[in-house]
Design brief:
Shape of chain B: globular
Number of strands of chain A: 0
Radius of gyration of chain A: 15 Å
Structural class of chain B: mainly alpha
Number of helices of chain B: 12
Number of domains of chain A: 1
Helix content of chain B: 25-40%
Strand order of the largest sheet of chain B: 1-2
Helix content of chain A: 55-70%
Number of domains of chain B: 2
CATH architecture of chain A: Up-down Bundle
Distance between the termini of chain A: 16 Å
Oligomer: heterodimer
Strand content of chain A: under 5%
Chain lengths: 115, 298
């Protein structure tokens, strides 16, 4: 998950105008898409609060189908973003598309992660 | 378009003659459009819609847990019986500016009139124009789940005397228009302090720690310190970090804001103009840094 944050941050740095590495954006976008496909594996049964320090809420396993649906949304959003990133270096367009990805992140982070 | 102006002026004058006096309250076009923007910035839908229960917009029913009990946001649609359809603009102005209901009773400050009081009369008029045009919903209000003495409205007079300073925002002439716009949005309209400022035992905002965060906010969880303190607040954030967070909810470390702030971004700040987000950032980066660690997580 931290890797996902790293890629999001790198893309955001370009969108915000902090850096000019336009060519890096598709690299991070592709990585983001691939990383989002690993997320479900990171939450095996028994890895919740009972296993130690984690912000994962028991609701993940109580509502696995809901959690899985939210993760699939992220996979779709990051795939879409990777397509956009392959076609443009325009910061505004990328920013808007990144917003959709950020929204999909909230689909898990709000209901399934402790505050 | 030179030819159109005299015609437009004539029509406008004619309209002003024949339009009923109360029409300013249900105007379309300019006032309602500006009101719609204010409505978004003020986040009314957030407290007045039962989002979790998929309730109809602004028909009330959202629970707000506080140390004094659970309050349920009322119906503010123009329904004449269950909503505020019978209200005049003056009723609305008194509610927002003074925290008073049309019958003279006090509102509990869970309704953040201590912040909304800062809104100008012109903005309140525009907001009212917009609200009058919304769909009326006949959903009755759910009574607050608050135990005595906190359910008793009379002591609110004393609370107000101690803690409430009514009156619209006054611009600081020593500051830029942009700073003043940001201050107005943060302090009055978007009422950020109502979540982000710690409160005293009687539930009043601790103004010495303006925006310094709290371990138990209205959602029940921690609310971050958004003063420019470098260690416990947002002192290390750039202006772009801030405006970008307000635009899409992304945090500098690549994470996203969740829960209530996620709602604020999605329904509110993401829909503001770039200029307004920039103004908010300028104001936030100028407030007194307060060192106040708000622990995150479970």
């Amino acid at each position: 998950m931290k890797a996902i944050g790293g890629h999001m941050g790198a893309i955001a740095a370009y969108v915000k105008g902090e850096v000019d590495h336009a060519a890096h954006v598709p690299v991070h976008a592709d990585a983001l898409r691939e990383a989002s496909r690993t997320v479900l594996d990171l939450f095996p049964k028994g890895s919740g609060p009972e296993a130690g320090e984690t912000r994962a809420l028991p609701k993940i396993w109580e509502d696995w189908s809901g959690f899985e649906a939210a993760v699939r949304d992220v996979e779709a959003a990051t795939a879409k973003f990777a397509e956009v990133a392959a076609g443009t270096a325009d910061r505004k367009a990328l920013g808007a598309a990144l917003g959709a990805v950020g929204k999909s992140c909230g689909g898990c982070h709000t209901p399934y992660r402790s505050k | 378009m030179p030819g159109h102006r005299p015609a437009a002026a004539f029509l406008f004058a004619l309209a002003a003659l024949v339009w009923p006096a109360g029409a300013a309250e249900t105007g379309t076009g300019g006032a309602a459009a500006r009101g719609a923007y204010l409505f978004t910035a003020a986040g009314c839908a957030g407290c007045h819609t039962d989002i979790a229960g998929k309730g109809p917009p602004l028909a009330g029913g959202r629970a707000l847990k506080t140390p004094f009990g659970t309050f349920y946001g009322p119906n503010i649609t123009p329904d004449p019986d269950q909503g505020i359809g019978r209200w005049s603009f003056e009723d609305f102005r008194r509610a927002m500016r003074l925290g008073l209901a049309p019958d003279g009773s006090h509102y509990f400050p869970v309704f953040p009139y201590p912040s909304f009081t800062g809104m100008t009369d012109a903005d309140l008029a525009d907001l009212w124009a917009y609200m009058r045009g919304l769909a009326p919903v006949a959903r009755p209000n759910r009574p607050h789940d608050v135990a005595f003495p906190f359910s008793w409205r009379l002591p609110m007079a004393g609370w107000k005397w101690l803690f409430f300073e009514p009156g619209p925002f006054v611009a600081d002439p020593a500051r830029s228009p942009e700073w003043n716009r940001g201050a107005y949005l943060v302090q009055a309209v978007a009422h950020c302090g109502e979540c982000h400022t710690p409160r005293n035992r009687l539930g009043a905002l601790d103004r010495d720690r303006h925006l310094a965060g709290t371990a138990s906010g209205p959602g029940g969880g921690p609310v971050p310190n958004i003063t420019p303190d470098p260690d416990t607040g947002i002192g290390r954030w750039s202006a772009a970090d801030l405006t970008y967070m307000l635009a899409i909810g992304l945090l500098p470390d690549g994470d996203v804001v969740g829960d209530e702030m996620g709602e604020v971004v999605e329904n509110g700040t993401s829909k503001l103009t770039d200029a307004d987000r920039t103004a908010i950032a300028e104001y936030l980066r100028s407030v007194d840094p307060v060192r106040h660690e708000v622990p995150r997580g479970p």
